[in-house]
Amino acid sequence: MADEILTIREVAELLKINEKTAYKLASSGKIPGFKVGGSWRFERQEIARWIKRKVEEQQGGNGGA
User: Fold this and answer.
1) How far apart are CA 18 and CA 49, in angstroms?
2) CA dist., res. 4 & res. 61, Å (int)
3) What is the pLDDT of residue 60?
4) Which of 12, 45, 60, 62 qualifies as a cystine partner to 19, CB 3.0-4.6 A?
5) Residue closest to 50 by CA, chosen among 61, 39, 42
6) How buried is residue 16: exposed, middle or buried, by Cβ count under 10 Å (0-12/13-18/19+)?
7) What is the pLDDT of residues 1-18, one digit of tens each?
8) Which bin fits 36, alpha (ψ -120 to 50), beta or left (φ > 0)?
């Protein structure tokens, strides 16, 4: 169960982005996460669903062009 909750570093690695970028996205509510004692945490399944939604949005946006 420990690997179901991700740190900011783990989310950054998963998304192949810089930790600072991941922090900015989390702070602005653009990726789903929550704070525990001032530190960001993310549910692996929520991040997976977020990725899937983003991919579907991009594919849908390109279909009408």
Assistant:
1) 21
2) 31
3) 86
4) 12
5) 42
6) exposed
7) 556 999 999 999 999 999
8) beta
